[in-house]
Amino acid sequence: MSLTVLMNAGPWLSVPPPGYGGIENVVATLVPELRRLGVRVVLASVETSTLPVDEKISVFPDGQFHALQRPYNQVCGVSQAHLGGVVRALHARDDIDLVHDHVEAVGLATMAAMGPDAPPALHTLHWDLAKHPELYGNLDGGDRVRVNGVSASQLARAPQALRDHSVGHVHLSTPLAVDADRRPPVDQGDHVIILGRINPGKGQDLGARLARQVGFPLVLAGPVGPYHRPEDLAAAGDEARQNPDVRFFYDHVAPHVDGDLVRWVGTVAGQERDDLLASARAALFPLRWEEPGGTAVVESLALGTPVVSTARGCLPELIEHGRTGLLTTDEEELGDLVLAAGLLDPAECRREAAARFTPAMMAEQYVGLYERVRQLAARPLLPERPYRPGRTDGWWPGRRLSPAGTGKPAVRSR
């Protein structure tokens, strides 16, 4: 395949990330499979990214995740500086066939504002689409900029302008799903795990409270704000409470954490993460928001760990109730479902992951979307209109002035 894609991962974490990293893990999973299919990839990320690619564009030497939840006036320039580097690269070269953008809000706005001479762009929506109503509700990317969701339920809740620009959805994947159906079984323990960044939407406070009420051991694995280890958060002192996730942890989660029945272990990665997840009785997702993608959900299935969750967002798309997990609309029922999860067959979870959530499947679907976006962008940028007399430079309303009054359109056709 002769296709060069600029993959815009953003400035927050390296690719692959050192442990936690949602979007960066998605990019790290997708890119090797795209290159296997013959796609040439130019990665826009931070300099410390180690993912093998054909080229790399960087503005920042390392990830800026530590600044992500600072006050707006301290952090507002980070994404813009990164996007400025991307735009400069796109202006300086003509070999980029498509931009695949993953930067929330400003990535989509920048791609839409670049104008008709920019390459086609596909913006993947990884987030809660209610967050930026003025942006998403008024999007006009013309024929050149399109979006895709990471679940059907995410797009179903999107503003009409986003749905008008959508080319469909692609579920997230995990390398753990490759040959998951042939992975040997793991002895499962009694502990339950909640995997992910600790914040109100993920519901760790609810999970911790239910663990104390019902009596199951619970492991919370994920960062609190920019703090990846308990000792780092403890050393930060009261100043850390300026971060909203830290305040949430101290006010609502920490009162339940006793180091015995309920433990916070910080960010876990690699084999340690896989072992902790594979040996769990269940992966618990006590969601208080409409989860759009669910990387940790498909990772749990690939490791043979049944999922227990509130039936929100993408979860009903990913989990078959009674076979690969247990879902409920009553969050108080989650504790009882955790106890019942031991009756589910881990082999069914692994088979489901191998059948639906491999990186190769995700890459093939994205290549199909790339071609669709390029076809849509190839529509005439301006309708054919008759020449209107009174000008000698070939101009009519909606047409840009041609160079040096030649009468030839300055808008590049595709």
UniProtKB/TrEMBL annotation:
Name of the protein in question: Glycosyltransferase
Source organism (scientific name): Micromonospora sicca
Cytoplasm among keywords: no
Region of interest: Disordered: 383-414
Gene3D superfamilies reported in the protein's UniProt record: Glycogen Phosphorylase B (3.40.50.2000)
Record GO terms (molecular function): glycosyltransferase activity
Keyword Transmembrane helix: no
Residue ranges of domain Glycosyltransferase subfamily 4-like N-terminal in the record: 20-130
Enzyme Commission no: 2.4.-.-
Enzyme class: transferase
Keywords: Glycosyltransferase, Transferase
